[in-house]
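Memo to structure team: turn this sequence into structure tokens by end of day. - J.P.
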Amino acid sequence: MNVKGLLIAALALAASLRVEAQAPPGFTKVPFNHEFGVGFRCAQNFGVSPQAAGCVALVLTIDEIDKCFTDGIGGKGCFGDNNTFVRTVRDNIVAARRENTPADQVIRTTTGVSMKDIKAKGILGGNNSEARKECRRLPKWGFHC
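Reply from structure team:
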């Protein structure tokens, strides 16, 4: 199946998965969550395959974006309070309060990197900054992380 066919099938499946997940036939009656139900239905439709993985990712992404419009961001909405992105932004806002100037606070909030670390270690900040960690994961293109 090509990517276009997968997308169409996954969108159709997404519409059918809007109901709460139920235990598949023959399984013990335990409270399956929505994510399990999505995975099970995608595997039913595509087998255990890369297409099924793509189906799960697409359906859950559609669900999350839908929650953004219906319930807002954070809390019970999309990207809930324990979402990595939401936690990172929240932590950056808290950390920005320790900066000296409003400009430094904006930089710390948006990048997570302290101006003190930028001045001492460069644009990627200190040794444990998320920006520097990500840089270390990338191939070296002639620059030092």
